[in-house]
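User: Can you fold this complex?
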Amino acid sequence: KKYSNDHEWIEVSQDGKTGTVGITHYAAKSLGDVVYVELPSPDMDVNVGDSIGAVESVKSASDIMTPVSGVVVEANNALEESPATINKSPEDEGWIAKIQLTEKAEEEIKDLLNAEEYLKFIEE
Amino acid sequence: MAPSRGLSTVFSILSYRTSHSNRVCSSIRPQFISRAYTSIPASSFVELVTRPTSKHQIYISRSLDPYLNLSIEHFLLQRTSPESVILFLYTNRPSIIIGRNQNPWVEVNLRLLNAAKNDNNDIETEPPSLGDVWLVRRRSGGGTVFHDEGNVNYSVICPPAEFARDKHAEMVVRGLRNLGIDRARVNERHDIVLDQGSQRSQVDEADTHVTPYTSDDRLRSLKISGSAFKLTRHRSLHHGTCLLSSPNLNIIPDYLHAPAKPYIKARGVESVSSPVGNVGLSNGEFERAVVEQFCRLHNVPLDASRGAIEGVNTTVSENDNKWVSAVVDEELASIPEIAKGMDELKSLEWTFLQTPQFVLSSHPTPDDPRERPTLDSAIPSKTQISLKSRSGVILESDIHIPSDGPLAETQAAEIHKELANKKIHEIDNWEALLGGSKGIEDSNHTKAIGNWLAKMFGKA
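Assistant: Here's the predicted assembly.
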């Protein structure tokens, strides 16, 4: 699992073709109780840093960015029914989208932080 | 007040051409009789907004168009440099502003809104209806608010590192208190309220979350300002209303009372209702107070801010910090990004198809066991009406007159053929739509059910 400076995580599949993305515990905590999630549509082309959806919590509409470039293949529809899953399990069941990785993405992932580096980052 | 400045300071006042922009505002608002101002031309605006050295910017809009004002705000959110801090004040003509993820059929009495548009005089309200009230879905979260010319909106955009939900509400409270409004405080929901009651206690005057009148007893405070937020990758936006002298407080509840509310269970965000009150200040007094507090909070020389207040555009630079302060108006609608933003906000797709999933049902269900008000007597007693919608489109429906069973299923299926995938906001004549199916035999039933659905969706 790798992490971005914007508090997103990505877990790459065994075959290296897809990455599952979501927001970190730290981000979920700062957001507060999530009451609604706007998910990306499948087939959406995304570039690293683009908005792939939004979350509403405490009257705030917050953009969710993708840590990698690629094409959205699946969104976690369970979040429509239970937005609170993002708070309960942001780095597991609360995943937001699965993205088909491009070559560019593989480079981008190398630049992301590992768990230790991310922990250090949020401590600052 | 002369701020101390070094030799490197350049104080320049740029005066703009006044031929197009000199406006005398007509007396739409009682306290705003006539005032000449010079507004900033569109090209200068774009240049100054996007300039990386425009570290602090203050704008006041003299347009009353909510689509324009919200689009100017969005432009500021997207185009100002990441380290800058912006204050934008604006007032809108009577409008209802719903949050990004809300359901207009639950939050708003659309029939009342549309009645004025269609000169439909058969709706009686007391006091008399307001005339044309617009409906706008904003890009930030939160609930539904009513804007009119007695309400001034403030908006602050800043870097995420400097953002806190209460920070600028506290700033506004300081401004209000300086004008003698000592009952104002920020509450737990980041709103601003006026404490009621006469019980005075000793409190820390610098604490913007408590007043001498804050008490535990049941006297509910009156909300004067609601807040909403939008957080992007590089910027944080907080905007809020402030009810100063709205003449419409008595009638706002009518507009915010939707006939479908008891029948709809919706995902998304529901409004939290609060009793409201006016502060009792003029728009100008409030604007000046907020600008002053913004300057104090962000170390802006007060002289620089006078530009927006007095309608003379100023750009002040102190060392590397440049300030921009200006009045803006309809001219900004000519800026392509802003015009595009206005089109998006005006579009029926954004207004209605952004609506999260909801289910409308005439009778209690396991998911929504609330008691329902009795249906109109023209509707046969065993009738059940249920619709599921996502993104403002009808996905599923189950309308049947006989009790559950094969007859009911057949009827519901027939009716659904007419309703499937229809965009709810586009259905003007529910009776005709239902009548087009083979489902209902008795045209009186078609009429009764059609009328009920029309009422639910604001068309009757």
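Confidence is low (pLDDT under 50) at residues 1-34 of chain B. Residues 10 and 317 of chain B are 6 Å apart (CA to CA).
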